Structure to design on (775 residues):
């Protein structure tokens, strides 16, 4: 230390505050403030700031008992029971993440634009897939196949009214009635998106311009956390596409009949006109999707364009016209086999998704090669393509699982051997079902490899565990050393996760190609393998049966989990952890994804820090744990230089580099973290080797202390001693405040704030006066 650092720094009389931000899973303000008596000082039931009841007045800093506030945001992700149903929107959430995984290349606007468009198109195919799945259940299995089969209708009494000679018995009228299910699904998704759009994307960020930056960090842009415009436009386009998908399914059924020998020329002509209007609607949606992307430089609160606003209403009007055309009397029409659209739409969707994923991988790889070596992300820049493929695979499993489950429920096979009463779901869904066990074998192999890696790494670390506690006079304990080494080995699995995801997505792609190829045979796997040797045929039949059961069970499990979460607050909090990680990013690709809680939390924190410093002229230490550290960093980036000069950042258990920096290099890569350290020079990060989520940030400033302190000892003590006679727990990702390093670093951060020269706030004369020292 130099002489200046040894000189005691006078503590100023201005108020000072520590603002706590919790991590995943949430916690109560009482637990964060370590006091049962707390008072809400600002906010509402969804997200709010609390203080101890005894600390409602601002006061100067006290290292032993500082003035503290707790920002509680857990209700943004796990507040009420209806949010458990967001589990069914998991594919939409995953594909939305792909938008933010773009490699950190510079000067390649055309490639970046192409990357964003490809992600939006891939997200659009998921909306079509979900709508097509609902059509496969309602239009194909129920209205076309079961209602057209006397045996199936007899087994399902509730369908019996759609058979015989009644008004609803005609195929077109059955199809028009069946369209109510996919239409209800689209309207439900539209309503959920509109409701959450009004609640989440409407939080206005503070107006604090940053003219001090030549090239500010992307998360500091004025419109980054304000996505009303893009979500509204995407919602209109995806709603219209869902309605147009139902329209196309209906026209695909009526067209062959109307153009056949028993058809009507007038109905065929009307059908052609409606088909042309449907194609025109698709074209308009695609043009809108390509032309209008996300805007971040300024707040995107412009009114929704009239054309985008009219799209869903035009598509709905077209659907009503097609419903009337479909329900027109055709007494001679009989149905058999599968719905005509099923054989083409699902293989076509899988091919389109595969092409988009490959194109996305090529664009991402090009950006990856042009990015600085330090800013290159995981999987050689192919993270977005891998995540997009996983979203498509999960969407296919959910869609196929529901379809297979309904088909099994409707198929009242009887006799010896049993005879199916309906043709069953589209062939490609049967191939998808058969691929599920093979994919699970790949996942099981990866799990076994991870287990062997943990065991080998534990054996490697175990001899050196005792040496990490040189000041403790106790003998090595084999069991204690093994537990600590195992915790470190398990935590290190996070660093090899990209390789596992690469294997999983590679297997998904290979199995998808097999499914598409098998679908062109026209037969499900069990029938296609009949001419093969008996062993191969038995394996194919077993895989198809097991996969069909697994897909259906997966959907039922999600619904059951959502039902339990509706009743059980503990289960609801567990589900909320998924959204804490997955919905940090704004909805930029899919409007039906669960809403971005950060679009409420980041403005909340920015407003609170900015207004408190403006009103008191004091200093603030914002302390973020886990996901709370990411929110804290994003909020600090939104502030102007004068306000930032009075703020210190304390992160602990932070995934800001270990997860976000590797998967989202544009926003949290090394360059972005260096910019954050430049903006907030008083920054300290605590981490443990036993923490599977948090890690070092790897940033050091010239002439300033390094940001990282760690790895901290975990457990705090190896054995028993006079002060701690009972064994200390291995804390891993939790309770960083229990480590003495936390209080020491917090006090040091405040001391550095005092020694600094903060910029003058509006209306104040000089920074030196504010700092409590000579200018």
């Amino acid at each position: 230390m130099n002489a200046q650092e040894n000189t005691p720094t006078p503590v100023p009389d201005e108020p000072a505050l520590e603002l706590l931000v919790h991590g995943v899973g949430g916690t109560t303000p009482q637990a964060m403030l370590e006091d049962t008596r707390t008072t809400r000082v600002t906010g509402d039931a969804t997200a709010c700031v609390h203080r101890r009841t005894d600390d409602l007045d601002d006061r100067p800093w006290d290292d032993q008992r500082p003035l503290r506030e707790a920002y509680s945001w857990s209700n943004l992700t796990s507040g009420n029971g209806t949010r458990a149903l967001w589990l069914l929107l998991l594919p939409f959430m995953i594909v939305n993440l792909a938008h933010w995984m773009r490699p950190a290349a510079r000067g390649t606007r055309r490639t970046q634009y192409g990357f964003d468009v490809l992600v939006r198109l891939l997200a659009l195919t998921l909306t079509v897939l979900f709508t097509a799945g609902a059509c496969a259940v309602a239009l194909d299995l129920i209205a076309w196949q079961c209602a057209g089969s006397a045996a199936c209708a007899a087994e399902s009494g509730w369908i019996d009214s759609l058979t015989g000679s009644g008004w609803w018995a005609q195929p077109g009228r059955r199809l028009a009635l069946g369209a109510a299910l996919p239409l209800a699904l689209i309207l439900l998704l539209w309503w959920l998106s509109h409701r959450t759009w009004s609640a989440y994307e409407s939080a206005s960020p503070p107006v604090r311009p940053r003219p001090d930056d030549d090239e500010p960090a992307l998360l500091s842009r004025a419109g980054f956390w304000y996505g009303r415009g893009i979500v509204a436009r995407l919602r209109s386009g995806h709603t219209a596409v869902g309605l147009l998908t139902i329209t196309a399914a209906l026209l695909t059924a009526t067209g062959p009949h109307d153009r056949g020998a028993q058809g009507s020329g007038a109905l065929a002509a009307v059908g052609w006109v409606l088909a042309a209007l449907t194609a025109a609607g698709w074209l308009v949606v695609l043009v809108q999707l390509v032309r209008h992307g996300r805007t971040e430089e300024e707040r995107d609160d412009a009114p929704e364009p009239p054309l985008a606003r009219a799209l869903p209403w035009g598509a709905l009007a077209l659907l009503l016209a097609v419903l009337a055309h479909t329900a027109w009397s055709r007494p001679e029409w009989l149905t058999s086999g599968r719905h005509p659209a099923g054989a083409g739409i699902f293989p076509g969707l899988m091919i389109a998704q595969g092409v988009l994923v490959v194109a996305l991988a090529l664009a991402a790889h090009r950006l990856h090669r042009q990015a600085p070596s330090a800013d290159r992300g995981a999987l050689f820049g192919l993270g977005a393509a891998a995540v997009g493929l996983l979203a498509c695979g999960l969407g296919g499993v959910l869609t196929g699982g529901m379809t297979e489950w309904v088909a099994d429920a409707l198929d009242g096979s009887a006799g010896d051997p049993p005879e199916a009463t309906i043709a069953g779901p589209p062939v490609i869904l049967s191939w998808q079902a058969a691929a599920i066990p093979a994919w699970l074998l790949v996942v099981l192999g990866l799990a076994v490899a991870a287990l062997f890696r943990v065991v080998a790494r534990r054996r490697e670390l175990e001899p050196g565990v005792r040496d990490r506690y040189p000041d403790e006079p106790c003998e090595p304990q084999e069991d204690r050393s093994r537990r600590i080494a195992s915790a470190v080995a398990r935590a290190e699995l996070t660093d090899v996760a990209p390789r596992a995801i690469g294997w999983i997505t590679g297997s998904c792609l290979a199995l998808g190609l097999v499914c598409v190829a098998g679908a062109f045979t026209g037969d499900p796997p069990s029938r296609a393998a009949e001419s093969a040797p008996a062993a191969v045929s038995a394996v194919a039949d077993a895989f198809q049966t097991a996969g069909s059961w697994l897909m259906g069970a997966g959907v039922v499990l999600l619904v059951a989990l959502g039902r339990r979460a509706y009743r059980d607050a503990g289960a609801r909090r567990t589900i909320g952890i998924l959204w804490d990680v997955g919905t940090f990013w704004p909805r930029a690709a899919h409007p039906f994804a669960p809403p971005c809680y950060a679009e409420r939390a980041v403005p909340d924190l920015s407003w609170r820090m900015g207004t408190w410093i403006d009103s008191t002229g004091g200093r603030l230490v914002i302390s973020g744990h886990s996901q709370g550290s990411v929110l804290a960093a994003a909020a600090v980036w939104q502030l102007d230089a004068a306000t930032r000069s009075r703020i210190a950042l304390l992160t602990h258990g932070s995934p800001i580099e270990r997860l976000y920096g590797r998967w989202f290099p544009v926003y949290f890569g090394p360059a972005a973290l260096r910019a954050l350290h430049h903006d907030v020079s008083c920054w300290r990060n605590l981490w443990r080797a036993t923490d599977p989520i948090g890690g070092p940030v790897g940033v050091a400033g010239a002439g300033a202390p390094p940001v990282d302190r760690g790895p901290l000892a975990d457990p705090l003590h190896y054995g028993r001693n006079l002060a701690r006679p009972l064994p200390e727990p291995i804390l891993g990702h939790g309770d960083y405040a229990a480590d003495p390093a936390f209080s020491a670093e917090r006090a040091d951060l405040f001391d550095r704030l005092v020694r600094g020269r903060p910029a003058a706030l509006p209306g104040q004369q000089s920074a030196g006066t504010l700092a409590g020292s000579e200018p």
